[in-house]
Amino acid sequence: MATKLPKVPVVIVGMGWVGGIIAAELTKAGISVVGLERGKSRDTQDYYHVHDELRYASRYELMQDLSKETVSFRNTMKMRALPMRTYGSFLLGEGLGGAGVHWNGQYYRFLPYDFEIRSKTVERYGKKKIPENMTIRDWGITYDELEPYFVKYEQMAGISGEKEVPSNIGKMSTPFATAPMKKSPGMKLFEDAAKKLGYHPYVIPSANLTEVYKNPDGIERAPCQYCGYCERFGCEYGAKADPVVTVLPVAKQTGKLDLRMHSNVTQIIHDGKKATGVTYVHTPTGEEYTQPADVVILAGYLFTNVRLLLLSKLGRPYDPETDTGAVGRNYAYQVNGASTSAFYEDREFNLAMGAGALGSSIDDFNGDNFDHTDLKFLHGANIRFTQTGLRPIQYQPVPAGTPKWGAEFKKASVHNSNRVLSVTGQGASMPNRYHFLDLDPEYKDAFGMPLIRMTFDFEDQDRELVKFIAQKTKDIADQMGATKTEVHDSIKQYNIVPYQSTHNTGGTIMGSDPKTSVVNNYLQMWDAENVFICGASNFPHNSGYNPTATVGALAYRTAEGIQKYLDKGGSLV
Amino acid sequence: MANDKPNQPQDESRRRFLKYSGTALGGVVLGGVIGGLVGSNLNKTTEEETPAPAAKQPAADAKDYNQALMFFNQDQFLTAEAAAERLFPKDDLGPGAKELGVAFFIDHQMASAFGTNSRDYMQPPYYKAEATQGYQLVFKRRELIALGLDAMNKYSTAKYKKLFVEIAPEEQDAVLTAFETDKTEIKDVPASNFFAMFLNLTLEGAYADPLYGGNRNMAGWKMRNFPGNQMSYTEYIEKEEFVKLEPLSLHDHLELG
């Protein structure tokens, strides 16, 4: 029997970026918040011995323990989904700060085109341009409406970037909070080559500080040391913005945040119209609690958000056969695989040095910044050179045709370890009627509850995009003065084994149609007005960008919506 | 509930952290150990201008009491050592797997939580998988590696009438290739799964921090000019020329008193 706790105004499920931002904003406004986090507490002192590739990068120290919960996967509805038994394609965060702790810090606002992708595509190319089963849609919010919230996130995190951004991306009302990252020789080669071709390179905006910065909340942090351990690692300097060093201290300082670790939410309690609270298990003791609340906020990773709704039977599950319902719809990912490696016989680069967000990129082939009339795909990719700090276990650069082991392999991999620069495309992922999330009929988590099941594959859209973008990466790399270049231009089926990207999106998408979206543009649930769901699970498609900027902006908007709701109640739109 | 009270040892280390607080990094006073480390590492890198005295390296025949087996039997260990050396052989660039201690690394990994798949989803049922769905066997890593090594000896004995460690290097390569490509015609073990895992472990053993038993004396890193675990590259990141640094390991991070 669950212990019933006293009612609180707000309960948040998951204390990563979204949970942290909302907790900070609400508590600053004097609202009491309970934050439930199923993982453990963490701070910068935990990362004193973080420069350990085996433990953190290869053994996934900071990631969710899959023995307790994973996802199941199949390419198509005809296949039997099987559990992801060990990590591969993407990594699930866990613990205080969530995946916000081990991100790379690459910060891109989505394009104005992204938010109105359907209207703009139809306007420029006509309805027929959209292939059958591609379920792109407008987001129910425009770039201009979301712009002030991007600014809030940038000022809070101290995002670094160039004063002027290229005109082919969204206009900024306020410049970035700090100066751009330093330029490595590889970045200069990339930028010079891109300019020669008439493109518009810029230094990647970064959540790693470039100078001492005090944010509007009074949080002061130190600059990045380019130590080369960002993605999969926590930052021992606190230079990389993460929830634990930015928003959570602010929330804690108000005295209004009741943060409960090891608290695994298993159900949203509701009457079909409104939620009354959540049930959670305190995992160290096995005790079950119910936490009544006026407002319930789902702030987990997309799999958690979708799964909790389905397990709680809240909202209408998506059915791909009839194309009805909403929860689980429009699962999308990131389409990587287009790249060119430039080999230099005559020089070596300091590639062990770097930062997750160190690099330069162009958007000349992203969004609808180029004519798609004669192309067999929509959207595009951010094309970039990044210097994230290459580590010797996971990075074995060899020219094509080199054996995978033995004397020749050793010679080539050692020789090339500091001689290869890669130009890569981070491709957008368009939703498809048959790419979705639902509950697995067979596999269960450690509590005996169904796993989330993913049905996803690459389509012709993705293969065409990769082929096109790969050629663009080669055009640039060929201008970078290398001895030779090697292009990678094809992807096949989606395979969950090799690491690709932890940019999973969709499942609780936002929109203006209550029938086919889960939340409105305040991330308030259509089917339960006091439930707010926020994260990349809101994205109806994924752009050719890292998602955190847009997640952060949505979180600030959600926080505003919740305050409005607590004042007046009812639907916010 | 949010913050568990630190126990005694943590208090001790906290005192040590505090000892190093107060070092400024770009004007911000950093609490704890990081400040101390940044200072000490920057000093170290400037010292590198003059070649450091040769690191104390244990003589080849010196006993290292930290080195012994946790999981393999002796045959498995010797087979692993010989196989890893073929995958990552000694050459004029530097040491191979044997000298780097890769077989000890693999042995220790198999004895660890990784070897027992403790953080993997291991619940039934098990079905035959499509290649896109990943490893779907109930068999654990340590079981697969041990059985695979045994199978290599079995195969080598059948083919060459000798154990794997006794056959010529080219013959060892032929055995490894047979396992890599599933052409062993022995049903004991999913050969290519074993091979892929063993190859991966070999590279990890060559390049993981020395604390795990491989990458002896950071020789794997030195071969690639990988600087290991430095705390700051701010002063080098814009440099056009390649900067060679004597690597630091996690052990160096303990040298704080």
Chart the SSEs and their pairings:
The complex is a heterodimer of chains A (573) and B (257).
Chain A (H helix, E strand, L loop, with lengths): L2 E2 L3 E6 L3 H12 L4 E4 L16 H6 L12 E4 L7 E2 L28 H4 L1 H9 L17 H15 L27 H12 L5 E2 L9 E2 L5 E2 L25 H7 L3 E4 L2 E8 L4 E8 L4 E12 L3 H10 L17 E4 L6 E5 L15 E4 L18 E6 L20 H9 L4 E8 L8 E9 L5 E6 L4 H18 L6 E5 L16 E3 L16 E2 L2 E6 L14 H21 L5
Helix pairs in contact in A: 1-7, 1-11, 5-11
Chain B lengths: L7 H12 L3 E3 L2 E3 L2 H15 L26 H14 L9 H4 L1 H10 L29 H20 L8 H12 L10 H17 L11 H6 L33
Antiparallel strand pairs in B: 1-2
Helix pairs in contact in B: 3-5, 3-6, 3-7, 5-8, 6-7, 6-8, 7-8
- Tell me about the largest β-sheet of chain A: 9 strands, mixed
Percent of residues in beta strands of chain B: under 5%
What is the class of chain A in the CATH system?
Answer: Alpha Beta
Radius of gyration of chain B: 23 Å
CATH domain topology of chain A:
FAD/NAD(P)-binding domain
Order of helices and strands of chain B: HEEHHHHHHHH
Number of domains of chain B: 2
Distance between the termini of chain B: 33 Å
Strand order of the largest sheet of chain B: 1-2
Average pLDDT figure of chain B:
83
Largest interface: A-B, 82 and 76 residues
Give the CATH architecture of chain A: 3-Layer(bba) Sandwich
Shape summary of chain A? globular
- Which parts of chain B are unreliable, with pLDDT below 50 for 5 consecutive residues or more? 1-24, 29-55
Give the integer mean of the pLDDT values of chain A.
97
**Could you give the count of β-strands of chain B?**
2
Please give the radius of gyration of chain A in angstroms. Answer: 23 Å
Number of strands of chain A: 23
Q: What number of domains of chain A?
A: 1
Summarize the structure.
By secondary structure, chain A is α/β, with parallel strands linked by helices. Chain A has helices at 17-28, 53-58, 112-115, 117-125, 143-157, 185-196, 247-253, 302-311, 407-415, 460-477, 548-568, and strands at 3-4, 8-13, 33-36, 71-74, 82-83, 202-203, 213-214, 220-221, 257-260, 263-270, 275-282, 287-298, 329-332, 339-343, 359-362, 381-386, 420-427, 436-444, 450-455, 484-488, 505-507, 524-525, 528-533.
